[in-house]
Structure formats: C-alpha cells, structure tokens
Amino acid sequence: MAKLFLGLDSSTQSLSALVINLDSRKIIYEKSLNFDRALPQYKTQNGVLPNRDPLIKHSSPLMWAKALDLIFVEMKNDGVALGEILAISGSGQQHGSVYFNERAETVLENLDSKKTLVENLRGIFARKTSPIWMDSSTAKECAEIRKKLGGIKYTASRTGSDAFERFTGPQIRKFYKTEPDAYAKTSHITLVSSFMASLLAEKIAPIDFGDGAGMNLMDLRKKVWDMDALKATAPGLKLKLPPLAPSGQAIGKVGNYFVEKFGLNPEALSTVWTGDNPASVIGLGLSKPGRVAISLGTSDTFFGTMEKCRTDENGEGHVFGSPTGGYMTLICFKNGSFAREKIRELYGIKNWDEFGKLVASTKPGNGGGILLPWFEPEIVPRVNKPGIHRFDLDTKNAAANCRAIFEAQMLSMRLHSQWMKVSTEKIFATGGASNNVALLQVMADVMNCCVERIEVSKGAALGAALQAAHGWLTAAGKNPKWKKLVAGFTAPIPGSEIRPDKKTARIYDDLIEKYAACENEALDNLHKTI
Ligand code: XUL
Questions:
Q1: Which residues pair with 262 in a beta bridge?
Q2: HEC string for 132-152
Q3: Is 93 in the pocket of ligand 1 (CB under 6 A)?
Q4: How many Å lie between the centroid of ligand 1 and the Cα of residue 93?
Q5: Mutate to test the pocket of ligand 1, among 332, 334, 338, 376 (most ligand atoms within 8 A of CB)
Q6: Is the CB of 135 under 6 A from ligand 1?
Q7: Angle 378-298-32 from CA coordinates, rounded to 5°
Q8: Atom 3 (ligand 1): residue with closest C-alpha?
Q9: Which of 110, 150, 198, 516 has its CA 20 to 30 A from that of 427?
Q10: Would the CB of 144 count as within 6 Å of ligand 1?
C-alpha cells in the first residue's frame, strides 16, 4: 500500500486538498474549491459575508463544513485512493473563530453519514457567523486587553503579539460584550483550523501552538492558556477553550462519517491542524532559521523560523509556535497586491509585464523619491486613516511611482523586521507578484539577499500533508526529522535565483534612513489629524 497523506487548507477564499505519496515523494493530487463559485448560496464575496460596516468581516462556518463534504466528493470522483490515506492534517486561515453551543459535542460524536455535514451541524452554533482575520472592528477591545495586560511590550512578550483587532481574544471580548447571552450559551470556541479538525475527528479538536498564538490568549513560552489574558478577555473563558497540543499530533481515528460516506480507511489518523502561515513554514521548507519567505499576496507577509523566542517590543510583528518546533515570526502588511493594483489602475498600466518594464526602466533608489502606499488601513506600521504620501516624487511620473510603491513595500519589510535579529541567508518569494522578475530584483537589492521563487499556491496544503505524515510517523513510534521529511517536496523553481547587486544594495542602505524618516513624519501628521 502506498503511503498517502492528505493535507487540507481552509483559507479565506477556498478549501484546497493536496495528497502526497511519501514513498515516491510526489504530490499526486491537488484540488481547490472556491467558496464564492462553488457555494453561491452562502453569498460570500471573496469568502466574506457582505456587511454594511466595512470593519466587520465574517464568514459562515456552515459554508466551510459544506466545502469539506464537497472536496471529498471531488476527490472520490477524481479517483483518489481515499482508502489508502494514512493520516489527514490541515491548516486554516488564522484568527477566525467558531462558537459552539452545548449540543455540539454530542452531535459531533454522532455524525450521520446519510445526511450532509450541514444537515448534521444545524443548531449547534452559539453564533451563526464567524469573525475572520480581515475583521478590524475590535480596536476598543484591543485597548482594554492591552491595558489590563500592562501595555504593548508586555502583551507582546507574553502572548507573542500585541493585541490586534483580528486576533481571537479581542474578537471573543467583543462577542461577550455585545452578545452576553449568546456568549453564555457558548460551550466551546474553536479556530477555523480546529473547527475543521473537529469535523474530521468527530470530537472537539485541540488548538495547536501555531494558531493558538494568534489569539492573544496563549502564554507563548509555556504553551499553556495564559490565565491573565483569559481574565482580561472574558469571564469563564477557560472552560470554553479546547486544550492546546502540537500540530500534527494524532487526535484519533478519522470519523465514521468520512469512512462510511467516502471510503476512508477506518484506521486513518485524524491529526491536529494549524494556521495557514505555520503550515507554510513546513510547505516552503523554512524549518532552518535564516531562510525566510516573502509572500506577495492579498496582503504581503514576511515570515520565517527562530530558535529562541524573541518578541517585538513595538508590537508590530507576531511570534507563533512553529509546527517544526521552536518559533516562527510573521509580519503582515495589509497593503500588498491591493496597493500595487491601485497604482497600476491609477496610471492605466495594462498588465504586470508592463508594470515590471516600467520598474526596470527607472533607477534603483528612484532619486530619493518615496511613496507610502497606505490605500487601506495598514497593520505595519499601524495606520488607521488610509492615504498615500509622496516625498520628492512626481505624481505624474508613472514609472517612478511603480518603482516607488514596490521599493516602499520592501523597505518597510526590511525596517519592520529588524527586531527579529535573524540574519537572512535566503529569501523564498511566493505569491502572485513573485513571477515578476523586475520586482524580485528590487526585493533582492533592498534586502541584500539571494531570492528564489517557490510555488506557493499549495504551500499551506503541502505543509498540512507533510504535517499529517509527521504525525503518523510520530504515532508509529518513529522519530521523523523535518529536514528529511520535506526533502524533494519543497524545492524552489529551478533557475529562479536572483542575486542582489552589491552596489545597488548600498543605495538602499542609505535610502532606508530616509524611508524611516518619511514614515515617522507621515505617522506624526496622521496622529495630529485624528
Ligand atoms: C496572519 C493573518 C493572515 C491569515 C490569512 O496573521 O492574519 O495571513 O492567516 O489566511
């Protein structure tokens, strides 16, 4: 029997499945199901339910459950040898939360395979919708929690991050304050990751140290629920939270529902899921500190692993438990591809090829021209009042503005990742804009580091499949090593290496000072106008 492992990734816009064969070291199946297109009855836009308040971003846990049913139907129809899968793991969009009532445990233990998952799960939610990571409606609750925990530095050093609007603790606090009756009727709170794992295991699944650190509720160093943080968030919270556990740890056998309905092997293991960023650490082969990934997606993220736990005193970056052991860092810049697209639109640039050509036609450093591209409220640095700011930059010069936006995004990453004190020896670039060579050259020069491209569309799902394999080997008493396990699966795209130009890199050593000064000036002005 082939050694097959299934990884699922429940992201904002889609549910993806990826199957690996550990013997042949091949990805043998990949499928993605887009929520808006496959499940229009839930009326989401890009996976989010419409809301009049632009700060509120919720989604539907029933839609995620429906997608789980559908992806198994797809796998079965596509002839995936479901009976040969030895273990399943997964990853979910981070921070989102699901609220169960007291019926949930019994219903989960008795899922009826003659019904759909949605039919089974009706009536087990204490809150119909789930706040997700894009929600920024909890500024007040963040301030309250931060104050009770002793300020930014202390909150960050204790829980891994300052209190952030999208983090689960502030979201729970808002729920408790605005819907106290529904909060009182909540018996279990899960994350997106542990919700999906609970369906597969047919019992409330643990939360792992990676996703758990995205809640402002876990003591990062001790890896237990932090009683002060819990108290600062909402009363009686400890009883509503599942236990914490390492990702990939076996929860038990996969539930009967999936065995009877889709022909899964009754001996297959169901394991603890993690967040999509922690899973990508595995899927991108970042277990070695010094290798970082820059993902140029909806939001741009910068992440990598750290052996020692170090947190950001300024409270901009995050530290999570890494699924490969130790810690991982993550900095999330909200104005990623959206801001790049805005500039493209603004200057009527046809496509990304042309955008890249314009960047390449200008000189590195842009003659000192700087653009702060905060089209949307920004996470790093914190900007609540969107707007763009130009310094020594001609608004009419399209090419200079194209260069300026990407230089600013890279300079900002360099500036705001200094607290990690990780000396970067290789950057793996992923995400939509990473196939633009002109942009990658700017990345290599600003960071003064070699950049290689790696296919990320499957980064989290691949990480999840490898995590399933790791969990299965561990449960079998083996002592799997991550380096060996991921070998062959996580290679960068051959020939994609871009080296920094040493002379150009020096230009950015100077420009970063000016960038920091411009950022400070813009932030000072913003604070004056708020
Ligand atoms: C990380 C974050 C996002 C989501 C996207 O803190 O909020 O990257 O995990 O799914």
A1: none
A2: CCCCCCCHHHHHHHHHHHCCH
A3: yes
A4: 6
A5: 332
A6: no
A7: 150
A8: 94
A9: 516
A10: no
Atom of ligand 1 nearest to the CA of 93: 10
Q: Tokens standing for 175? A: 């729920």
Our answer on whether the CB atom of 334 is closer than 6 Å to any ligand 1 atom is no
Task: Judge if the beta carbon of residue 397 lies within 6 A of ligand 1.
Answer: no
| Tens-level pLDDT at each residue, the chain (530 residues) | 789 999 999 999 999 999 999 999 999 999 999 999 999 999 999 999 999 998 999 999 999 999 999 999 999 999 999 999 999 999 999 999 999 999 999 999 999 999 999 999 999 999 999 999 999 899 999 999 999 999 999 999 999 999 999 999 999 999 999 999 999 999 999 999 999 999 999 999 999 999 999 999 999 999 999 999 999 999 999 999 999 999 999 999 999 999 999 999 999 999 999 999 999 999 888 888 888 999 988 789 999 898 889 999 999 999 999 999 999 999 999 899 889 999 999 999 999 999 999 999 999 999 999 999 999 889 899 888 889 999 999 999 999 999 999 999 999 999 999 998 888 889 999 888 888 999 999 999 999 999 999 875 678 999 999 999 999 999 999 999 999 999 888 888 889 999 999 999 999 999 999 999 999 999 998 876 54
* Residue 159 in tokens: 């829980």
**What one-character-per-residue DSSP string does 329-341 give?**
EEEEESSSHHHHH
Q: Within 160-244, where are the H helices?
A: 168-178, 180-184, 192-201, 209-212, 227-233
DSSP 8-state symbol, 328: E
Count of residues in the chain? 530
Tell me if 302 CB under 6 Å of ligand 1.
no
Residue entry with tokens 């603790």: 169
94 lines ligand 1 (CB under 6 A): yes
CB crowding 29-64: b at 16 or more within 10 Å, else e: bebbbebbebbeebebeebbbeeeeeebbbbbbbbb
14 lines ligand 1 (CB under 6 A): no
Rounded to 5 degrees, φ, ψ at 520 are -60, -45
Cβ pair 112, 257 in contact under 8 A: yes
Mutation test of ligand 1: which of 277, 281, 320 has the most ligand atoms closer than 8 Å to its C-beta?
Answer: 277
* Residue written as token pair 């990407």: 406
